[in-house]
Every structure is written in structure tokens, then in C-alpha cells.
Amino acid sequence: MTDQNPHDHPPHGDAPLDHTARPAAFGLVAMAAAFGMIGMALGFATLLGVTATASGGHDTTGYGPAVSSFVLGVLLVAGAVLVWRAHRAARIVIWIGVTLLVVSSLIRMAVDSITFMSVVGTVLSLVALAAMVSLLYSDGVREHLRRGQPLRLG
Hints:
Layout: H1 22-53, H2 63-84, H3 90-111, H4 116-136, H5 139-147
Helix pairs in contact: 1-2, 1-4, 1-5, 2-3, 3-4
């Protein structure tokens, strides 16, 4: 009788699977993809709203934030895909997206009028971005990207 746990080895005598990097990598993929999709949806909806309400094409003040939100969303979704695929550029892409989102949040905090909702939204955004940064620099994500093996759901 061996003292090995039967869960350490997959059936049919294949090589053992190491799942140590998966929780952090899955967490980073989920957060980056979720924030990215939210940013893309908000940017696209804002762009449509500004386009529909622009008086003769002269009032285009909302185009900048709409386009930047959409582009940051695309950047985060691309970063999530790169983490999923274990591409070495993943950390750089997500780091750029997170940095731009932090700058955007700080600018919005300085420019927008201060209301309870704006403060709560900004604080929650910064907390979520801090969680993404901690996952980005976690040993699990670092190991996942070093191995270069794409994530699997099964």
C-alpha cells in the first residue's frame, strides 16, 4: 500500500497535475475580464448616447471618456485572455490597464462633484484594482505565466 493520496494523480497513470497556480490565475482572469467587459459596455453605451444627443455634431464632450473607457475595457479583456493563455506579456498588458484605470479614477475624483455615490464608487474601484494588483504580483500568477501552460476548466 502506498502513502500517496489518490487525488494527487489523474486516472490512467498520466503525470500528476499541479493546481497551485490556478486560483490566483483564475481570479486575475475573472477580475480583468469582468472589469474589461464593464468598461467596454459603458464606453459603447456612452458613445451611443453622446452620438444620439450631440446637437448637430457640435456637442461632443462625452466622446473622450467614452472612447477611453472602451479602450481600457479592450485592454483588460486582452490581458485576461493573455493570462488565460499564459502569455508572458499578460502582466504588462494588465499592469498598463490597471495603471490607466487608477489614473482615471483619481482624475474623476478630482474633477467630478463629490457625492456619496461618487466617493463610494471611486473607493470600491480602487479597492478592486488593488486586489487585481495583488493577484498580478502573486506567486500563483507568476508561476502560471512562467510555466506557459494555458488554464483549463476541467
